[in-house]
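Researcher: Good morning. I'm working through a list of sequences from a screen, and I'd like to move beyond sequence-only analysis. For each chain I'm collecting a predicted structure so we can compare shapes side by side. This is the next one on the list. No need for commentary yet; just the structure.
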Amino acid sequence: MAGEQDVPKRALLIVVLIGSCMVIGDGILTPAISVLSATGGIKLDHPKMSNEVVVLVSVVILIGLFSMQRYGTDTIAWLCAPVVLVWFLLIGVIGAYNIWRYDASVLKAFSPVYIYRYFKRGGVDGWTSLGGIMLSTTGTEAVFADLSHFPVSAIQLAFTVVVFPSLLLAYTGQATYLMKNSNHVADVFYRSIPDSIYWPVFLVATAAAIVASQATISATFSLTKQALAMSCFPRVKVVHTSNRFLHEI
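Model: Good morning. Structure tokens for this chain:
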């Protein structure tokens, strides 16, 4: 009887471990992908620049990021909030500018009538395309990967008041831009930035990519520590870097 009761617990443990492994994998991949995609904006202003230069810049940034981990998240995370706030406000303002400049009629897309017509017209292919559409929101979860480091109310407030409205404006603005510049699909984000603020936005975008990378790294550290406490991970040395917060490791 006891053995049968342990089966659901073991099954749940396996599911949790699989999910944790995926997050840890994300923590390994996200820094490289995020920083590389952000620094890729250099080539837009310098199209003759080789990919090797972009990769080299990304490698230097990543080496600096991982070199800072020894000081603990308590020391290096204090810059994250201002950078993320500026980043979301910037993309929201740029999105609103593109909507105003190109075609404000794109706001009609918020009507549920259009998604109904889209599914009716596209059938099974329309539902399948949702997988690609969902990719437009990936990346935002990296900023909140270290959820356990903040109160739930703070996360809910930030997402509702800042993150979600900014993303809606940003993607709607990019859609409006593509309506007039359909050949810029591959690099629509950087193409849609006004020339006068291109480089400041590039710097903030790179800083935001670093912050997102830091969040996934912090989450990976926390998961590793928790898995270690449950005897689900090989023994590793855990260094506590804060006298006030246990999760600062």
